[in-house]
Amino acid sequence: MNDSGSKLAYRLPALLMLVLLAMPAWAHEQAGQAAGFVTGLLHPVSGLDHVLAMVAVGLWGAQLGAPAIWLLPVTFPLVMACGGFLGLLGVPLPGVEAGIAASAVLLGAMVATEARPTLWLAALLVAFFAVFHGHAHGTELPAGQSGLLYSVGFVVATGCLHATGVAIGLIHRWGSGRMALRAAGAAVSAAGLYFLWRALA
Asked: What are the two backbone dihedrals, phi and then psi, of residue 47, each rounded to the nearest 5 degrees?
């Protein structure tokens, strides 16, 4: 072993011990903030209406291809963060649950019909619904948790759901895959109609 390798071998256990000793103190001081991040991370997957709409964004982006395949999944979390900020501030937004359900209906329909509007119109539709999703997340911040880390958590989770949709949507390159995606879009839209009925009931 050369000199640099032997020095690293001696220093690594000492460094690891320092990290382990510091972890309990860090965890104690940051417990509320860490909980905020984890709560935000789990919030988007706590409701099927959120999950279906966010996956549908990725599916639609994959159908449309570049640049929509990355533009739509980037637009949604960015605008959703703005909606979340409004929710954190307590700014009212009427029809949030209906808007979330309608997002599943329309985004599912876009996938089911392989709709190909202009890029700006597709991004505008995604951004419009992102406000409702973000507002719902923002208003449900638990007391005593970090609003910033909670927001980071739900934005990260949303990005992961979009990425899942994009990954699934790559089957669009095959004929049978295109049919499967259209069927999935129809299922999302049908589920959205059920959620919309519940929201308006």
From this structure: -130, 130
Eight-class DSSP state of 170: G
What DSSP string runs through 52-98?
A: HHHHHHHHHHHHH-TTHHHHHHHHHHHHHHHHHHHHHHT---TTHHH
Is the CB of residue 192 less than 8 Å from the CB of residue 108?
yes
Which pTM value belongs to this model?
0.80
Domain residue limits, the chain: 32-200
Tokens for 128? Answer: 């419009």
pLDDT tens string 79-136: 999 999 999 899 999 999 999 999 999 999 999 999 999 999 999 999 999 999 999 9
Task: Give me the residue label for tokens 């972890």.
Answer: 23
Q: Max alpha carbon distance in the chain (Å)?
A: 73
